[in-house]
Amino acid sequence: MSQLPPCPQCGSEYTYEDQDMLICPECAHEWVIDGAVEEDSDAPLISDAYGSLLKDGDTVTVIKDLKIKGASSVVKVGTKVKGIRLVEGDHDIDCKIDGIGAMKLKSEFVKKA
């Protein structure tokens, strides 16, 4: 097993690896492993209503009441959506909303939280 570097922020030796990131459990600092590529070249570049780039796993907030087709419920302004997944197409965010379930959203109706 290779020796992981200590945390650059607090110096803790208890860092661990999660995919291409190193994480410090003591101060919650995350950084990229040297030599790892930060951006996937095949990942779609999708931004929110204010131009912030989104990535898989982000948390977003709905900025407009959204009526759900085929149902009488509405996704209210300010609803937080955790763990989004970016997909190709018109509705480019795949997510689960508490109390509603799985659905797709357009990035123009969300802001990065």
From TrEMBL:
Gene3D superfamilies: 2.20.25.10, SH3 Domains. It holds the Pfam family Zn_Ribbon_YjdM. Transmembrane segments: none annotated. Residues 47-113 form the Protein YjdM C-terminal domain. Keywords: Hydrolase. Residues 3-31 form the Protein YjdM N-terminal domain. GO terms for molecular function: hydrolase activity. It comes from the Bacteria. This is Phosphonoacetate hydrolase. It comes from Vreelandella subglaciescola.
